[in-house]
Amino acid sequence: MTIASNLGFPPMGAARELKRATEGYWSGKVSRAQLLATGAELRRRHWQLQRDIGLDRIPANDFSFYDRMLDTCAMVGAVPPRYGFKSEWMDAETYFAMARGSQGKGRDVTAMEMTKWFDTNYHYIVPELERGQRFRMASAKPANEYREAKAAGIDATTVLIGPLTFLLLAKTRGTAFDRLSLLDALLPVYGDVLESLAAAGATWVQIDEPCLALDRTEAERAAYVRAYTQLAKRTKLKLMVATYFAGLNDNLATALALPVEGLHVDLVRAPQQLDALLAQWPKGRVLSAGVIDGRNVWRADLERQRMLVQRAAATVGRDRLWVAPSCSLLHTPLDLDLETKLDPELKGWLAFAKQKLQEVVALATDDRPAMAASSRAAQSRRTSKRINNAAVQRRAASVTEKDRARGTRFADRRPAQVELPAYPTTTIGSFPQTADVRAARRKLHDAQLTAEQYDQFIEAQIAKTVRLQEELGLDVLVHGEFERNDMVEYFGEQLVGFAFTEHGWVQSYGTRYVKPPIIFGDVSRPTAMTVRWSKYAQSLTQRPVKGMLTGPVTILQWSFVRDDQPRAETAKQIALAIRDEVIDLEAAGIRVIQIDEPALREGLPLRRAEWNDYLHWAVDAFRLATAGVRDATQIHTHMCYSEFNDVLRVIERMDADVISIENARSGSELLQGLEQYKYPNEIGPGVYDIHSPRVPSTAEITSALKSMTRVLEDAQIWVNPDCGLKTRGWEETMAALKNMVAAAKAMRENGAR
Ligand code: GLN
Ligand code: ZN
User: Fold this and answer.
1) Of 741, 746, 689, nearest to 719 (Cα)?
2) 659-668 pLDDT, tens per residue?
3) Ligand 1: centre distance to CA 663 (Å)
4) What share of the chain is helix, strand, coil (3-state, %, to 5)?
5) How far apart are CA 744 and CA 714, in angstroms?
6) What ranges make up the beta strands (E) of 275-332?
7) Which fold does the domain 3-11+54-383 belong to in CATH?
8) How far apart (Å, rounded) are the C-alpha atoms in residues 332 and 353?
9) Which alpha helices (DSSP H) does 348-450 contain, by range?
10) How do the domains of the chain map onto residue ranges?
């Protein structure tokens, strides 16, 4: 019998109960006992739901109060010294202090760092390890949750993050050292955890090793074999090593050499790996075939996936085959049944976590009627008029390189653009989104404000912001983005081809959830989206006001995208829609237009071999969106959140006249990059961190600017914060910008042109 299995279920609950309980606990309104009870209730409910769907293997320890990587730090006792953790077992206070920092009660510690989990929009807590790091089992959560499942009648698969993925994703502190040198100290703790699971009666343990599907060195591959050889010696439990998000490819031999009972592979992202895998499949081993997409919201074409399952079964044997989602379902919304407002046609094409598990069961049980129904849905999706727009497809097909080129070189077009003093000052776009701005939007939504009243409110915000910027003496102004809830949602709501859910939440980090738009069809822009506000702002001032748009790659990256055409094609369609908006802004008298691409860097594929291809189409999309303007229109772009030195050269090909880049938090890294590589156009490396309410002094900003003059020409340098100011308060914003303008003046007086 083929086994229907799952790798992980989203813990938050249909009504986001976990968010409410956790935040309530932080604010003192929910007791520790209540928080624990909510956790237990959600686990029970989700186990039962999975059993009712008909799954044979159900995960445990996939639940987390904050993050599984943080849970792993707790499990192996990797608690940075600043938390003063001395007890035998992890406690809630230390756990949440690691997650969010803690202030008060005589304590003042910063949080651990957070970063994106592979190429998802989920952020994990980054373990901090030092030379000679010691480990010990400091959390009994895996065995406790196994027992809990058992009491509910389920022999669950306990999910752990594997020792190598844990080490490879950690950051090292203090003097540099080889992180793999910590493996020998770490493995005995994993051994202890496995022992505790065996004592609780466990049979299978799933060890997540997504790092095994990425580019690895020989030393890392050897460490994989060494680690699992040791663990296999230490335990009689059956181990399922789970890889996902990419194919094993050049790590296949390593994966097959691990002396474990099972291997999970992602056959959605990397179906091509199946042939090589089957050709070398070790007799008797269990293959867990990830054939249902855990990264997207589309209903599968089960008849097509059935062929993969059949092929796998023919080699490994039906009784050695598990059918599963490609990865944990953490990255999909919970339950499509909760969506009451989506129209039935679109809804018929979708599957969220619950529905995906139903698909897994249909495949494992060879449920032919279910398969036929899914293929009918796939067929209707392929031919639907709601998806296919011939005009959009024709336009995209006729794009040529000329449409993506500005026509003149930067140096030649720059004199035609806005005239500005040296060290021009500007901001990244948004100004504080205070409670009254959010309240106005809510009132509009609840029909307590008419559209006219709301528009008047926004106009008043814009007028105030323009006036304040003039008073500050900023050179290039912005309207403040008060009309926007979110930089992707705002555009998605106005574009054709996008849909929005009511409950399609996915975890971004901790108790933060996002509801990404769903791009389901050909994208077009029926009417102008931002011109009204930019024009209004420009009418209030002589100084240039920047038009402010989100770029095609970022819109793509922060949405659930179509799986029926390449991402590059969808990006091109979005680029054409943004291009129309750019041209309309120009026609309305806007002389400076910024197209934000904060997600360009994070869209990089996991495997280096695929980087060039991605960067090519991503930059092409940006160029297509922006190159329709005259020489006199100045194009800006903005990027943040990430490491740029990898992509500096690529940014040049975007050919924006000006780029603003986050810089303050990453120290001097960007400057080092710019030292080695001469960026040709103008650039504003952020002069202060907007993630904190702290007000930087004029002297600090001046010194940041001076360090830039070492690697950039004076005439290239712009003066701006790291990112938008939307999460800040007005008071600190005004104080910081005042100092920023003063620093720019000081630089000008210092002899810069
Ligand atoms: N223009 C946007 C803002 O200022 C940019 C946000 C971002 O880079 N994430 O809010
Ligand atoms: Zn930013």
Assistant:
1) 741
2) 999 887 666 7
3) 14
4) 45, 15, 40
5) 11
6) 286-292, 321-325
7) TIM Barrel (3.20.20)
8) 6
9) 353-364, 368-383, 390-397, 410-413, 435-445
10) 3-11+54-383, 429-661
Give the integer Cα–Cα distance in Å for 683 and 660.
Answer: 6
Check pocket membership of 640 for ligand 1, CB cut-off 6 A.
Answer: yes
- Of 349, 289, 228, 303, nearest to 7 by C-alpha is 289
Q: What is the pLDDT of residues 85-144, one digit of tens each?
A: 999 999 999 999 999 998 877 778 889 989 899 999 999 999 999 999 999 999 999 999
> Among 211, 178, 207, 204, which Cα is nearest to 190's?
207
Residue nearest to atom 8 of ligand 1 (CA): 598
Our answer on whether the CB atom of 638 is closer than 6 Å to any ligand 1 atom is: yes
Tokens 């293997």: give the residue.
57
**What's the rounded Cα separation, in Å, for the pair 111 and 114?**
9
Tokens of 179: 């992180």
Distance in angstroms (rounded) separating the CA atoms of residues 677 and 431? 33
The region that residue 435 occupies, defined by phi over 0 for left and psi between -120 and 50 for alpha, beta otherwise, is: alpha
CA 741 to chain centre: 33
pLDDT of residue 753: 41
CATH topology match: 3-11+54-383 vs 429-661: yes
Amino acid in position 345: E
Residue 434 belongs to what H/E stretch?
none
Closest CA to 596 of 709, 701, 720: 720
CA of 426 from ligand 2 middle (Å) equals 13
Distance 686 CA to ligand 2 centre (A): 10
Nearest C-alpha neighbor of 58 from the set 49, 70, 67, 66? 49
> What is the C-alpha separation between 26 and 99, in angstroms, rounded?
12
595 lines ligand 1 (CB under 6 A): no
Question: What is d(CA 562, CA 299) in angstroms, rounded to the nearest whole number?
Answer: 11
Tokens of 305: 């996936």
| Ligand 2 center–CA 661 separation, angstroms | 7
CA distance 96 to 111: 9
List the residue whose alpha carbon is closest to atom 3 of ligand 1.
724
596 in contact with ligand 1, CB cutoff 6 A: yes
Cβ 462 under 6 angstroms from ligand 1: no
**Ligand 1 atom nearest to CA at 429:** 4
* CB of 661 sitting under 6 A from ligand 1: no
- What tens digit of pLDDT does each residue of 244-301 get? 999 999 999 999 999 999 999 999 999 999 999 999 999 999 999 999 999 999 999 9
Ligand 1 atom closest to residue 640's alpha carbon, by position in its atom list: 8
Closest CA to 20 of 69, 65, 60: 65
- Measured from the CB, is residue 598 less than 6 Å from ligand 1? yes
Instruction: Supply 42's token pair.
Output: 């959600």
For residue 224, which of 300, 171, 137, 164 has the smallest C-alpha distance? Answer: 164
Minimum-distance ligand to the CA of 429? 1
Alpha-carbon gap, residue 206 to 188, rounded angstroms: 18
Class of domain 429-661: alpha beta
Helix (H) or strand (E) holding 721: none
Residue 752 CB contacts under 8 Å (≥ 6 apart), including other chains = 422, 423, 709, 714
Evaluate if pTM is beyond 0.90: yes
Positions annotated as catalytic residues are 691
Among the bound ligands, name the one nearest to the CA of residue 596. Answer: 1
How many helices (H) and strands (E) the chain has is answered by 27, 23
Of the chain, the end-to-end C-alpha distance in Å amounts to: 77
